[in-house]
Amino acid sequence: MTPEIDAHFDRIKAEHGHDVLARVEEMLEPRRRSEQRHPLQQAAKWVLPGIPQTPWHDPYAYPELLPLVRALEENHPRIKAEQEQAWEERRGSFSDYEHYLVRQRNWQALYLYRDGALVGESEPVAPTAYRVLKEHAVDTGVICPLLESHFSTLLPGAAIKPHCDLWNFSINLHLAIDIPEGARIRVAEETRQWEEGRTLLFDYSFEHEAWNDGDRTRTCLLADLWHPDTTLPEREALTLLMTEIQKMMAG
Predict the structure, then answer these.
(1) What is 1-251's CATH topology?
(2) What is the DSSP string of 186-246?
(3) Pseudo-torsion of CA 131, 111, 54, 76, nearest 10°?
(4) Where are the domains of the chain?
(5) pTM tops 0.90
(6) What is the pLDDT of residues 42-69, one digit of tens each?
C-alpha cells in the first residue's frame, strides 16, 4: 500500500476500532488472490474474505436495500414510459456501453450515476428513475461510489460475453424494464430470465453473461450497490483504496 492509503486506514481504525479493516487488509495479501475462491470467481481481481460465495441473491432479503427495490418496482410503469420516450426522442442521451473489458455498440447505456455522483443531465431525460435512485440509493449510501447506475439496452442479437467483474464487495441490482422473449442472463451455473417490473440481484464477481435473442431491445435499469455483508468502515476504506489504485493505474 502507499503512505496515503496507510494514513487513511490508520484514521479509520482510530475512529472505529483496530480490527475493522481486517478483511480488507487480508484481501490485499498476495496469497489471497487465488485462495478460497469459487472456481467461477477466479477471474475477479479483488475478493473480500467472508463475503458469502452466493451468485444469486434474493433482492427482498436485505433491509438496507429493500426501500430501493420496492421503489423501483412500484415506479416501474413510469420508469418504463420515460425510458421508451427517451429512446425514441432523445437517442443522443444514450452511448455505447464502456465496460472495463470492452466497448459495445450494440449495448447502449443512459447513465444516471457515474464517477461518484448523479449525472444531472439525465434528470430531465429519466426523472422518475433519477429521483428513486437519488432518494433510495445515493442519499442512503447504498450505491457504490466506485461504480455506476444506468439504463442498459441490448439490441436484438447482442450478447455480453462471459466475464467476471473486478470485485465481490459490490453487488448488481437489475430492474427489468422491457424484456423480449429470448433475453436471458447466466450467473455462475444458473440461467434466468428477467421478469418485467421485478428486480434481480447477483454477485458479478462470478462469471456471468447475457444475451438478447429477441426481436426488440432488452432494457434493464442497473445499479451497483454495496454488498450488504460489507461494513461502513470497510466501505470507506475500499472507496479510498480503489480510488488510489485507479489513480496509480491512470498515471
Answers:
(1) Jelly Rolls (2.60.120)
(2) EETTEEE---TT-EEEE-TTS-EEEEE-SSS-EEEEEEEEE-TTS-HHHHHHHHHHHHHHH
(3) 40
(4) 1-251
(5) yes
(6) 899 999 999 999 999 999 999 999 999 9
